[in-house]
Design brief:
The complex is a heterodimer.
Chain A (H helix, E strand, L loop, with lengths): L2 E7 L8 E7 L8 H14 L21 E3 L2 E2 L21 E6 L7 E3 L2 E2 L2 H8 L22 H11 L6 H5 L6 H12 L2 H4 L2 H14 L10 H5 L7 H16 L1
Helix pairs in contact in A: 2-7, 3-5, 5-7, 5-9, 7-9
Chain B lengths: L15 H8 L5 H4 L3 E5 L3 H13 L2 E5 L17 E2 L11 H11 L6 H20 L25 E2 L5 H18 L3 E4 L2 E9 L2 E9 L5 E5 L2 E4 L20 H8 L4 E2 L4 E7 L22 E5 L2 H8 L13 E2 L1 H5 L9 H16 L8 E4 L1 H14 L7 H27 L8 E10 L2 E2 L12 E3 L17 H21 L13 H18 L7 H15 L6 H21 L11 H25 L23 H4 L1 E6 L8 E6 L14
The chains are: A alpha+beta, B alpha+beta.
The structure holds flavin-adenine dinucleotide, iron/sulfur cluster and FE2/S2 (inorganic) cluster.
Chain lengths: 248, 667
């Protein structure tokens, strides 16, 4: 198929950037979206032009590196997939596709479609861990049985890949879904409960410092999240936060 | 023994590690604060090592090429992690795990290292649970296990199909705790371009800031390389796009011996190649072989009809299918080790029984498992006389619960529903057992340069068993390296900070810059990918699942010609002092073009078949691998001497004192 691409090009963080048009022929349905961009880039290179830069690594939906806003939606039109898992069979011959970086104040553009998501790391550094030493000598793994349902819920929250689609989808650019996923994982496990109070306060504080917006419960994040992270996590974070604030 | 001293402690196998820990030199906590360590790589091995080193008190700098440590390729590991916990009471023990690993590796690994790994495996699970890693559990609240290939016990711990993700996020969280305490400084989007030696010791690295293009010098008392495997030398593999050999290869060029480069694992269950545009291959976890049965049609005509789209696999009855693994290996059936399963698939496809358009695929079928689980579920849910549809529905739910994300991944890529029609799979490059040679302390042949995880060669011999890489990465990182490195660093407590401004650093920086400029000054004929794909084709066709002398010789010639062509004609747009993904790729491919040649040379030298290394000249009449213990019970460690063709072979003889060398049989 033949596609008309409108792609955000921006040389560097300092540059202004603009949309550029490209026409690409010979796209096959079996190609992934990123493989389609590979083909475009090979064409650009052979013409001596700079290829379009985008973040990617695993190309199987787990590293959270890929991050494209496709026709206005983070990770494109398909549900529960990342950009790298989106296949061209979802598009038709002659389609125009608009490709932009994830947009948010806290995610400045580095180049073309690549953004800086280090704010997410700093939120995790503020409390996304259990303070146990890793040099050995802890209790036996089966010493504390955990209800299967709780363990499964904790796992589901923990499958967040830190891609940032929730932020890009939100009109307030809020990072609540991302932050709540980690808070929930630990809140649901006995190992995590011990520090639950400090954790939620510190992580939320960092989230606000990074310039993410407030959550107004529109639910756009849940719809676009490639891993199906549920809004229930935000509700849980709010409960934890309230309880912690009263205590603290 | 030659120049290689494995430093394996004396004494009985089961006591070596404890004894060694009691005897090695320690650095006292106050002195650790005076010592800096660079850890390159933030996967399971690097992330875990950084966390424990920082916790012990060292000052740690970490490096990774991704935008966050959490994205290292360990994240993609699916199936699980082994540990000799014996929670299932099925007779498991550290000894059995040790035995399985040595046998699985076709008797080409070091006994003492493997035993230590088996011993530490139990701590890993305790540690990870304490960190809040949400492993799968049974209804009683205790941890669940599954089975992997090459073993007869159930010792694999898992978190659905995302075990690597959960373990890596655990290591990442431990790193974050140390970053928050100021004990780790992370350098993300940074690539190590060279190792710096001062007075023969590793004292730092040259790194490129991938955002600005700036070249930076970083000094430390020791350098740990935990940079993963080099499977991408084949272009197509299950590795992440950026996985590379640069760090290990740069160290090799500075004096670190490279061990067993030809020991590469081709994983039997991956989604087949769909076309020329393909950029990477996707694994379907080995855990699927717990429940999936592998088959091809018995009759060639049926295979042909399927390829032509005239027949559907579901139309073939039981007696028309050849469950070739169950037929050839009745004892282990679908759970034979990976090398055996891969070769068997290739054998059937080469013989004309392949089932996709290109004839390079076999079936992995869940229909029987769905029925079995469905009936069991109906029974436990108290359903009397359930109808067929109910059984199928219940069975599919059980399968979804176990492997949901893998089935979803398959459906997205292939556009077929694997609950209804069998999956198509084919072998693909997955893991590299070879890597930097290290001694028992995980130190390379360069003093002060350590290597952990997939980047080293240590524990898996000629073939790795499933769910053992995660185990090795975490054991190396959390529990081994942080202690053994103290033995070396105890000499450095009075050294004071290492300066990054000495001549050695300046010179190394200049060399890196010159190399980058040389890359940018190519004639501009072909893109980096053009060369990478060509290299991959040579590797796959001539150094892949089956190798022979003639092909290996021609591979060596072709790769060296391709390398020359690359340096003359590669085309890299953009700027050197800015973000430039093509330049990043070019640096990696340049090193693959050297490694590939050494790989072929290593395969050519090893005149035997063992594990993942199958030489067509050395096989039994039934086509099974023929090992030559008399002449090849050694590790090949290559010393760099300029061109790969000039590399010098050093042998570390392997001594088996606790295990009798036997022909591996899974029949
Ligand atoms: C799809 C897939 C599934 C798997 N499933 C399983 C499984 O179920 N069980 C199992 O036991 N094993 C599995 N494996 C194998 C296992 O995941 C890996 O062997 C293991 O995770 C490697 O960990 P590592 O820490 O050594 O390296 P990696 O996780 O690969 O990390 C490498 C690190 O090095 C950094 N790096 C590399 N080069 C440079 C450089 N030049 N400069 C700076 N940084 C650099 C990277 O940024 C990264 O942080 C699987 C592998 C794959 C590919
Ligand atoms: S919550 Fe979902 S969308 Fe947000 S970062 Fe995590 S995986 Fe991505
Ligand atoms: S590239 Fe890893 S999630 Fe898309």
């Amino acid at each position: 198929m033949k596609l008309f691409l409108k792609i955000w090009r921006q040389k560097s963080a300092q540059d202004n950037g603009s949309m550029k048009d490209y026409t690409l022929d010979g796209v096959e349905g079996d190609m992934s979206f990123l493989e389609m961009l590979d083909v475009l880039n090979e064409e650009l290179i052979s013409k001596g032009e700079e290829p379009v830069e985008f973040d990617h690594d695993c190309r199987e939906g787990i590293c959270g590196m890929c991050s494209l806003q496709i026709n206005g939606e983070p990770h494109g039109p398909d549900r529960l997939v990342t950009t790298c898992q989106l296949h061209m069979r979802k598009f038709n011959d002659g389609d125009t596709i608009v490709i932009e970086p994830f947009r948010a104040k806290a995610f400045p553009v580095i180049k073309d479609l690549v953004v800086d998501r280090s704010a997410f790391d700093r939120i995790q550094q503020a409390g996304g861990y259990v303070s146990v030493n890793t040099s050995g000598n802890t209790i036996d793994a089966n010493a504390i049985p955990i209800e299967k349902e709780k363990a499964d819920d904790a796992f589901n929250a923990a499958t967040c890949i830190g891609c940032g689609a929730c932020v890009a989808a939100c009109k307030n650019a809020s990072a609540m879904l991302f932050t709540s996923a980690k808070v929930s994982q630990y809140a649901l496990l006995p190992q995590g409960r011990v520090e639950a109070t400090d954790r939620v306060l510190n992580m939320v504080k960092q989230m606000d410092l990074e310039g993410f917006g407030n959550c107004t419960n529109t639910g756009a994040c849940e719809v676009e999240c490639p891993k199906g992270i549920s809004l229930e996590n935000i509700a849980r974070l709010n409960r934890e936060y309230l309880a912690a604030s009263i205590k603290g | 023994m030659g120049v290689l001293d494995s430093k394996v402690p004396s004494g009985p196998l089961a006591e070596k590690w404890t004894k060694h820990k009691n005897e090695i030199n320690l650095v006292n906590p106050a002195n650790k604060r005076l010592i800096d360590i660079i850890v390159v790589g933030t996967g399971l091995a690097g992330g875990a090592a950084a966390a424990t080193l920082a916790e012990l008190g060292y000052n740690v700098k970490t490096f990774c090429y991704q935008d966050s440590p959490r994205r290292a390729h360990s994240i993609a590991a699916q199936g699980g992690i082994n540990a000799a916990k014996n929670y299932q009471g099925d007779g498991d023990s550290p000894y059995r795990l040790f035995y399985d690993t040595v046998k699985g590796g076709d008797y080409r690994s070091r006994e003492a290292n493997v035993y230590r790994l088996a011993e530490e495996s139990v701590n890993i699970i305790d540690q990870c649970v304490a960190q809040g890693v949400p492993f799968a559990r049974e209804y009683g609240g205790l941890l669940d296990n599954r089975s992997f290939g090459g073993v007869l016990v159930s010792r694999t711990f898992y978190a659905k199909g995302q075990t690597g993700q959960q373990l890596l996020l655990g290591a990442y969280s431990a790193m974050n705790r140390q970053i928050n305490r100021g004990k780790i400084t992370p350098y993300n989007r940074h690539e190590m371009m060279d190792l710096v030696l001062v007075d023969g010791k590793a004292r730092g690295i040259i790194a490129r800031n991938l955002v600005t293009g700036e070249i930076e010098r970083h000094a430390a008392h020791a350098v740990v390389l935990a940079t993963g495997g080099y499977g991408n030398v084949f272009f197509l593999s299950t590795n992440a796009m950026g996985s590379n050999v640069m760090a290990a290869w740069r160290a090799h060029r500075k004096g670190a011996f490279f061990a067993n480069p030809c020991f590469t694992q081709i994983h039997p269950t991956c989604i087949p190649v769909s076309g020329d545009h393909q950029s990477k291959l996707t694994l379907m976890s080995e855990s699927l072989r717990n429940d999936g049965r592998i088959w091809v049609p018995k009759r060639k005509e049926d295979a042909e009809a399927i390829r032509a789209g005239k027949l559907k696999p579901t139309q073939l009855g039981e007696e028309e299918r050849d469950y070739y693994l169950e037929r050839r290996y009745p004892a282990f059936g679908n759970l034979v080790p990976r090398d055996v399963a891969s070769r068997a698939a290739k054998e059937r496809c080469d013989a004309g029984y392949g089932v996709n358009k290109t004839g390079e695929a076999v079936y992995l079928d869940f229909a029987a498992a769905i029925q079995r689980y469905g009936k069991e579920k109906a029974l436990t849910s108290g359903l009397k006389n359930p109808d067929a549809a109910t059984i199928t529905k219940l069975g599919e739910e059980v399968i979804e619960n176990k492997y949901g994300n893998l089935f979803q991944m398959y459906e997205k890529i292939v556009d077929e529903n694997p609950y209804k029609t069998p999956m198509m799979i084919y072998p693909a490059v997955h893991y590299t057992m070879g890597g930097l040679w290290v001694d028992y302390n995980l130190m390379t042949t360069i003093p002060g340069c350590y290597s952990a995880g997939e980047a080293n060669f240590s524990d898996h011999g000629a073939n790795r068993l499933g769910a053992s890489a995660l185990m090795q990465g975490l054991a190396d990182g959390y529990f081994v390296l942080p202690y053994t490195i103290g033995d070396y660093l105890s000499d450095d407590i009075r050294t004071g900070p290492i300066s990054p401004d000495t001549d050695e650093f300046v010179k190394a920086e200049e060399e890196v810059k010159a190399r980058l400029e040389k890359l940018m000054s190519g004639n501009g004929l072909h893109s980096v990918d053009h060369y990478h794909k060509k290299l991959g084709k040579i590797m796959w066709n001539k150094c892949g699942m089956a190798r022979n002398e003639k092909d290996l010789k021609s591979a060596i010639k072709e790769i060296s010609e391709l390398r020359k062509d690359f340096w003359e004609n590669v085309k890299i747009p953009g700027e050197i002092n800015a973000k430039n993904q093509e330049l990043e790729k070019a640096g990696r491919v340049a090193d693959f073009l050297e490694l590939g040649e050494l790989f072929a040379k290593d395969a050519l030298t090893r005149n035997e078949s063992c594990g993942g290394h199958f030489r067509e000249e050395y096989q039994t009449e039934e086509g099974e691998a023929l090992r030559d213990d008399k002449n090849f019970t050694f590790v090949s460690a290559w010393e760099y001497k300029g061109e790969p063709k000039d590399a010098v072979l050093h042998k570390e003889e392997l001594k088996y004192e606790n295990i009798e060398l036997k022909t591996r049989s899974y029949k």
